[in-house]
Structures are given as structure tokens and as C-alpha cells.
Amino acid sequence: MTLDIAALQTDLQAKGIDVLRLIFPDVLGITRSKDLLVSQLHRAKSPLFCQGVWVTTTGGGVLDGNDIMSSGLPDLLTQIDPDTLTMMPWEPGVALVIGDAFNPDHSVSEVAPRSVLQKVIAEYAALGLTPTVGPELEFYIANYDEENGWSRSLSRTGRVYTTGEHVDPGGQFLNLMRMLDGMDIGVFAGNHEFSPAQYEINLWHSEALDAADRTFLFKTAVRDIVARTGKHALFVGKPWDDEGGSGFHLHFSVVDKDGNNIMSDGGSGLSEMANHMIGGILAHAGSLAALSNPTVNAYKRLGPDTLAPYRANWGHDNRSAMLRVPPERGAGTRLEVRLGDPAANPYLLIASTLAAGLDGIKRKLTAPTAVEGWAYEDESADILPMTLTAALDALDADTVMRDTMGSTVIDVFSVLKRDEVMRYEDAVSDKATRDVSQWEIDEYFADY
Predict the structure, then answer these.
(1) Which residues neighbour 224 within 8 Å (Cβ) at sequence distance 6 or greater?
(2) What are the DSSP E strand ranges found in 19-129?
(3) Which pLDDT score is estimated for 59?
(4) Distance CA 96, CA 81 (A)
(5) Is the Cβ–Cβ distance between 290 and 392 less than 8 Å?
(6) Which of 119, 311, 356, 417 is least surrounded by Cβ atoms within 10 Å, i.e. has the fewest?
(7) Is the pTM of this model over 0.85?
(8) What are the structural domains of the chain?
(9) Lowest-confidence region among 28-32, 45-49, 331-335, 401-405
(10) Helices 208-227 & 346-363 angle (0-180, nearest 10)
(11) Torsion 404-407-412-414 (CA) sign
């Protein structure tokens, strides 16, 4: 795609934009960025970064995944995707735009999460299919000060599915919703969730790349908007020992070349296509766990009777299963994969889910019998990985994920995450504890 810098510059200046904030996700899902002066945009056609960003840990170390260190930390080129441009209503004069990442020779980066997702989507396109995704994320709003550390901004329980002053003192959440609406990224509803100071915001479904872009913009914006109030948005799976975790649920369907949803059998049941996709997702549940639950902390959210997944099973309108099939049929027929943690990189979570579903389609895998009742008691289904190490072992051994997503990004992800596990285990006395450690608080809260 050739970018007309002069036309972009003119358009931005006409809208009163004098700073363009270029953002892209690193492998961890953290937003990396550079502010570009619109008046000088012709001098920043391909803004440069260092490839060390791909292998920088949350703790600040730089590792040697994909030989990036040993090759001398080469350049990373970025290219603005003007279709992702959106305003920042809380920061007048500034707009956000997502950039694609390239190697110094202008080849597509095999590490860049957005490029990885584009690669998987192309596999669907080759079959005449388009994956559609609807993201659904939960997060906490927290207080922090040096003396008292981290705490929830509210303490009253029992206020699930509520809005208004009693769960939003000062209108912070209401302001957040208005700012997100001004971005035009598909936010359409939100509410206080089950635990005190926990919130959920829903984004409308769309084609997979667009949905991933909007999720990335959403997480970036929420953290920025909430930070301006002196509080913190935590996209962390299990920040508190005494309250429930937060999830990142993914609603997933496919349409044919004519735009028709092909997940239903035309009546009240599911199509063979949907059945194969369920079979694929469950077959790759172990490796999916690594990319959708990418922190040590995430596995303290998963478990029996947690309202988070525990077994690789599925059910009709069953929120205790890993994969729920909502009751809508026709154009609304879809799968809800409930495995994800909000710390997950949206591009890698969506790419891996699509890759698993694609394997089911290609190999015509058959879904097991749907679970009924409390899915935690379904002993016919395998227990999901209960540690990040176990999930990484499953991912490293998954040849389908490597073939579909590319080995390079999986290897870099594994290097980063195994270093994370090592640092965690060095810091805690009980490696098997389900309690949230000070190491997790220090490692994750400020960045996720």
C-alpha cells in the first residue's frame, strides 16, 4: 500500500490535528509509540524503531530472541495504516494511528503481531472465508500510592450489571465511555461487573483484523484516559486474592464470500463448519492457553469453580465451559471462546484462535459432545494447563500453530515468557502458590 503523505498531512491539519501518535503492539501486547509532528510528516514516512523492542521484557531486560541481540539490534521500520486513524477526544489536537512493522530490507516482520494475524487471515481467504470477531474485555480501576500500594477504587460487593454514581463516583466510567465513543472504535455498551471496581465494555464485531485493531486502540485508550484521573486501569487477569479475575472473551464466526454466516445448520443447530471449528479450538486448547493467558498471574484466574475455564470443553449457552455457543442462530450464530486473559496481546490471541479453528476446518475435526450443567465436573474433558510453563510446553510442541502463525513469533514469545517464569520462580518461596505475589504486582500492574 502506497501512503500519500501529503494528502494525509492536509487531512489531519484540516481536522486540527498537529500531532499524530503512531502506535504498534510489541510481542507482549504493550503499546509502543512515537509522536509525529504533522507539520513535519513528510520527514517521517517510515518512522524507525529498534528491533530490540520485540525482545524487551516487562522487567526491562533485553533478550536474544530471533538473534536480535546477537545481530546488533537492527532497525525496525514502520508504515502508517491510515485506515486505523482515530481521534483522541481527551487529548485535543492528537490522533492515534496503528503502524505495520518491517525489517530493514522492507520485508514484513515475522515477529510483528499484526503481521502474524494478517498471515492467518490470508489462510481463511484462500478458502473463501472471512473470520469475524467480537471482543469482550473486563478490567479493574485501581488506586495506587507509594505508601499504601495498589487497591480497588470501590469496595462494595454485589453490584454486577449496574451503572451510575454508586459504582461510578464522580462519573469516571461515564466519561470513559464518552471518550471511547468519540474514537468511533465500535464501543457500544458497558457496565460494572461482578467484583468491586471491575468493569466490562463491549465492542461490536467486525472482520478479524479490524476487531484486533479496535481492541488494541481500546486498551491503549482506556489506560491513558483512566491514568489522567490519577487512577489505573488494570488489564490483569487476577489482581486480587479476595476477588474474581477478569477475562477477555472472543466471539468468533466465519462468513462465506457472499457475506453469509455459515455457522448455523439453518435451524436451531450448528453447521458442520462450526462443529469442525469447535473441534479445532479444543484440540489446541493447551497451546491457546499460552497465547491467551500470557502471564504467570493469568493461571491464578483459571481453575475449578472460578467462573473462568478449567477444562477444554464446550456447551450450549454454558458460561462454565471454555467455549460457549450463545443461543442466537442465523446471522448471529457464533462461538464464544472464554479462555482469554485481558493481558493477552489481542493480535496473538485472535490469530491463535483463528489458527486453531482453521485446523479444525481443514482436518474436519469433530467436536466432542457438548457438556451440560456445571462444566467443571466434566471429567471427560482434559484439564487446561494450570501454569504458564505447561502452556508454553504445549505451544512449543504445536506444529500446527508454528506452521500457521510462523515459528519466529512463537519462539520469541517463548523466550520472553520463559524468562518471565524464571524471574518469578527466583522471587517467590512457593512456586505453586495461588496467592498473588508482590513480584506479580511489580511486574504487571504498571504495564497491563
Answers:
(1) 88, 90, 91
(2) 19-25, 31-37, 48-50, 75-80, 86-87, 94-102
(3) 86
(4) 11
(5) yes
(6) 119
(7) yes
(8) 5-108 (3.10.20.70), 119-444 (3.30.590.10)
(9) 45-49
(10) 160
(11) positive
